Structures are given as structure tokens and as C-alpha cells.
Task: inverse folding
């Protein structure tokens, strides 16, 4: 089966075209009015993806669910999304190795139970937008968030801490590198160029050191689009 890439429908056409050229079936998540407009189409706000399981909020678009059912086991959770932080972060979770990075108090209970069943340890962080803030590189991470960096390092995870800002998220002051990326196989995909990022060389070297490749999907500057989930 052709793998799929779950994206924000507002992601630029160059990214969509290049994802298709890379061999992915591009599936946009529907916009929702349950959260603020800048993040209303962000996949990492509306769902949590782990292996072949997709945990979705109860009001997610039904047609989207039909579109992804052949790719994964869709699990409908009970936690509803709300406009204001931290009530929009229940599914915003980064998993690396046998750890889940999230703000535990506001993480959906069904997902927490799943972690317990799977032997996955929750690393509780101050940063609620954990997936947005975390680029997963094999069993390591790249982040600009100090709390995620410190928590991950304390668990023995290799971390590259990069400069804040330099990633756009229209409607907000800045975005995050996790939300501007996705990974499949041995390749990290970024939504745009990082030549203006002061830590560009560090980012490229870190990814290379983990025996992974970097693919830039757009000639535009990198933008936080709520992560790209590959299944």
C-alpha cells in the first residue's frame, strides 16, 4: 500500500507536490472550529499517532476518518478540544524510544492508559505543545524548548537544543521545528528552507550523525504546519 502523509490542508502546494513525488498519498485533516484559527488544521493538535494507531478527538471530521481507516487503527478519544491553552494540547505528544513527552495533566486519559499498556514512560514537561516543539530523529530529538530539553536529557535522550524563533507560524509570533517536520524511514522532511536559521549547520550535522537524510519540501522558508504524520 502507498504510504500516506497527513497534513494541514493549508500547507503550500509545493510541499504537497513534493510529498506526492516522494511517493506519499497526501491526506489533509479537515479544519476544526474547536481551536484557534492558526492551528485549526494542524494534525498534531487533532490527533496523536503512534505506530499504526491514530488517537483522534471526538469531533474530528468523519470523512477524514474514512480516508485514513485503511492506513491505521483509528481510536476515538473522549477529550474534546477547546479554544484556549492548555485545553488544545490533549493530543500534542512526542514519542521517542519508549518515552512520551507531554504535559501529562492535560493529556487524554485513554492515551495515558495506552502508554501504560505499552510500557511507555511519560516525561512530563512544562511545554504543552510537546509535539510541535520536538523534531524526533531516530531515538534523539531536536528542540528549542528548554523544559523539553532538560526533561529529555534527564531520561538519557540525546538532545540538540537550538535557538528559539526563526520558524514562522502565521497568526503567532513564532512556530516550532517539530511542527515544521515529519519523518519516514531514514528521511526527515522539513516544510521549507532553514538557511536563515542560525543553527542550520548543527541541525544538518545532527540529523546526518543519526544516519538520516534531510529533505526540504519547499523553496519557501520553513513554516510550522502542525507536523506531517507519515503512515
Result:
Amino acid at each position: 500500500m502507498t504510504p500516506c502523509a497527513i497534513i494541514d490542508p493549508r500547507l503550500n502546494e509545493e510541499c504537497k507536490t513534493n510529498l506526492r513525488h516522494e511517493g506519499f498519498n497526501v491526506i489533509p485533516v479537515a479544519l476544526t472550529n474547536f481551536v484557534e484559527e492558526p492551528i485549526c488544521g494542524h494534525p498534531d493538535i487533532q490527533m496523536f499517532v503512534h505506530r499504526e494507531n491514530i488517537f483522534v478527538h471526538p469531533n474530528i471530521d468523519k470523512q477524514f476518518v474514512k480516508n485514513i481507516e485503511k492506513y491505521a487503527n483509528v481510536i476515538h478519544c473522549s477529550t474534546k478540544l477547546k479554544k484556549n491553552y492548555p485545553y488544545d494540547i490533549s493530543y500534542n505528544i512526542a514519542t521517542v524510544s519508549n518515552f512520551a513527552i507531554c504535559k501529562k495533566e492535560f493529556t487524554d486519559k485513554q492515551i495515558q492508559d495506552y502508554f501504560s499498556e505499552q510500557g511507555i514512560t511519560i516525561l512530563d514537561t512544562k511545554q504543552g505543545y510537546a509535539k510541535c516543539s520536538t523534531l524526533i530523529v531516530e531515538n534523539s530529538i531536536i528542540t528549542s524548548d528548554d523544559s523539553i530539553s532538560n526533561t529529555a536529557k534527564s531520561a538519557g535522550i540525546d538532545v540538540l537544543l537550538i535557538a528559539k524563533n526563526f520558524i514562522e507560524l502565521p497568526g503567532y509570533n513564532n512556530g516550532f521545528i517539530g511542527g515544521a517536520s515529519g519523518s519516514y524511514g531514514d528521511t526527515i522532511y522539513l516544510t521549507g528552507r532553514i538557511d536563515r536559521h542560525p543553527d542550520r549547520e548543527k541541525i544538518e550535522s545532527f540529523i546526518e550523525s543519526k544516519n538520516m537524510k534531510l529533505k526540504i519540501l519547499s523553496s519557501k522558508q520553513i513554516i510550522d504546519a502542525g507536523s506531517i504524520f507519515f503512515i
In short: The chain has one domain: 4-230. The mean pLDDT is 97. Residues 37 and 59 are 16 Å apart (CA to CA).
